[in-house]
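Example record

One chain of 382 residues, shown exactly as stored in the release files.
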Amino acid sequence: MKTYLAAFGAALFLVACAAPTENEDVTRLEEQRDSLKSEVTRLGSEIMAIDDRIAELSDDVNLPQVTAMVIGINDFDHYFTVQGNIETDLNAQVFPESQGVITAIYVKEGQTVSKGQRLMALDTELIRKNIAEVETQYEFAVDVYERQERLWEQNIGSEIQYLEAKTNKTRLENTLATLQKQVNMGTVNAPFAGIVDGITPKVGEMASPVMPVARIISLNNMYVTADVSENYLSKVELGMPADVVVPGVDTVATTINRVGRFINPENRTFEITLDLDEDGTFRPNMFASLRINDLHLDSVVVIPNAMVQQDSKGDEFVYVLNPNGSSHKVEKRIISSGTSYGNVTYIPSGLKEGELIVDKGARRVVDGDVVELASSKTMANK
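Predicted structure tokens for this chain:
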């Protein structure tokens, strides 16, 4: 600023000394103006050269201050995110096998049950009476059959009588088995071990095979399904690590155990499945975010995204600090940047471990500047 004020003052002085008269023509005035402009430029250049020399000779030089980061070697991971749904195959609505009035409910909501445990019973009194009646007929049929069998073995009586007795006994046996099965169908049992999540009817209400009476859920063997864009088909593989994230609930590390072969033509996605070993925190039908680790690199140079700049040619660069006596000299270093994730970028070439790169103050320096290092920190090593 002092340089430009001095040059401007010198120009004003020259203008005052060469003030035109009223008789001078326009051409003369233009020549004087151009001459003064040239003089201003020359004086400004001389003043700037003198300022630079003064700065070189001065014992009290105020160098620009910057902070720097020491490059370390780190592991680099890249993730992409898709939305998934938590599911379990052990989530069932329980239906009675027959129709009848509910006479007893043996469990409560929230109770843990084992496979086959009784949940409720229906009224089977009429069927039991039929069983008693058929049992009487069956006893008589067995007696008749045994008599006919003994006579037939002695070649007494006709074969028709023997076969009729045998057929009648077999028919009543089948009838008793059918009636007993109907009695068994009057008991509603748990299809698998789990938790009673809900009971719909009450004692005294009518149950029907078309209406559910309870829901049983097991939180074991849960898994996550997600639809992934076909753009990632070449990147997704069996065994690839991923995180299941339910905000505000939990995060679980897992791996992909199934990759679908079918591309959905409606949304151009394929399905993946991930096992979910957890302790009951999640619930079926919860939405979850899947962070899938599609790239892992060991021992590479990684720097914060903010340190990577781009020049007018489109080249990416950082400012590297090289020792210069008690100060440091700025070097513009062209780099090759790779994949970015979060707030860091993988640098495949252009930088090496232990070098200093400008952090704060990078926008105020240019190639060749001499700066003072205020502080430095190290990019955490793996």
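Notes: The first helix runs from residue 2 to 17.
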